[in-house]
Amino acid sequence: MSRLPITESDLHAYADDLLSASRRQEVDGYLASRPEEMERIQAWRDQNDALRELFDPVLDEPVPPRLHMNIDASVEAGVHRHFGPAFLGRYAAALLIALAGGVGGWMLHGASQPSATLTAHLGTEASLQVAALAHQAAVAHAVYSPDVRRPVEVTSDDEDALVKWLSKRIGTPLHPPKLGKLGYELMGGRLLPGQTGPVAQFMYQDAGGQRLTLYVSTDQAQNTDTGFRFAKEGQINVFYWIDGKFGYALSGGIDKSALSKIANAVYEQLDVPR
Questions:
Q1: At CA 226, angle to CA 134 and CA 110, rounded to 5?
Q2: What are the tens digits of pLDDT across the range 138-194?
Q3: How many CB atoms lie within 10 A of CB 221?
Q4: Which of 58, 148, 195, 250 has the most Cβ atoms closer than 10 angstroms to its Cβ?
Q5: Which UniProt keywords apply (predicted)?
Q6: Which helix (H) or strand (E) holds 107?
Q7: How far, in Å, CA of 211 to CA of 32, rounded?
């Protein structure tokens, strides 16, 4: 009996440890002579680990009061009777994760104002739309920054072509900041889906392999500036703000003070007449 060919679905199932023992053995044989495929699978596993690190802590957070208020009393009673309070808390947290991309990340904690220079330029309040910007940027960073083979869609080897391509897709000129003096060089970028249109992501890397991503969105409908704010999701720190029609979010695994210094440099370079 001939063996079935190894498909992309098999490779994803292999990365997630979902194959049967016999099928896994066949995939092991397939990968033995294909190190590049094994490297790709490891990158998927690294991405999965980053996402778990980002979202697993949410499962242990208390259920937000507004969620309790929105649960019908009879349904709530039935859930408690059949599953108990612990199940309700975990179910509610998982539900909020699913909704986070559309209504903003309720798990964003500790929004703060950094330097006086930035505060002088920007306001003090952020809407749910701005919080959603930070959440989406953190998720995009967690997914793509660990990638070994293809962290960016277009490399910085041809930066002019990269910028022209992303500017055309976004529908407005983009100017990726220069961070060489701070130890970070542009690796390249990629196009991502936003809430209402395309989003650009630029990725930077230092000599030690630490990566930062700048998420640039034009989803913002109102040309009103917002406060320069900070959010932390898992091990990812994010500084984010809206400037006119642009939404920006700088994400990285470095500490808050170091990221703040880089975010100031990014803001100063982007704060030019357009």
A1: 50
A2: 999 999 998 888 899 999 998 999 999 999 998 889 999 999 999 999 999 999 988
A3: 9
A4: 250
A5: Membrane, Transmembrane, Transmembrane helix
A6: none
A7: 31
Compute the average pLDDT of residues 75-79: 50
243 vs 218: CA distance, rounded Å: 10
- Answer yes or no: pTM beyond 0.90: no
Sequence-distant (≥ 6) Cβ neighbours of residue 157 within 8 angstroms:
188
Q: Determine the residue type at 18.
A: L
The number of beta carbons lying within 10 Å of the beta carbon of residue 171 is 10
Lookup: tokens for 41: 């699978």
The token duo for 54 is 């980002």
State the Cα–Cα distance between residues 180 and 168, nearest whole angstrom.
Answer: 26
Q: Give the chain's domains with CATH numbers.
A: 8-54 (no CATH), 62-103 (no CATH), 116-270 (3.30.200.100)
Q: Measure the CA–CA gap between 200 and 174, rounded to whole angstroms.
A: 9
d(CA 170, CA 200): 7
- DSSP code at position 183: T
Task: Determine contact, residues 218/246, Cβ cutoff 8 Å.
Answer: yes
* Phi, psi dihedrals of residue 233, rounded to the nearest 5°: -125, 110
Mean pLDDT of 119-134: 54
Secondary structure of residue 169 in the 3-state scheme = helix
Note the pLDDT tens digit of each residue in 18-70. 888 888 999 999 999 998 888 888 888 887 777 777 777 766 777 666 565 55
pLDDT at 129: 62
Local structure of 14: helix, strand or coil? helix
Question: How confident is the model at residue 222, as a pLDDT?
Answer: 54
- What distance in Å separates the CA atoms of residue 96 and residue 249, rounded to the nearest whole number? 22
SS3 per residue for 32-88: HCCHHHHHHHHHHHHHHHHHHHHHHHHHHCCCCHHHHHCCCHHHHHHHHHHHCHHHH
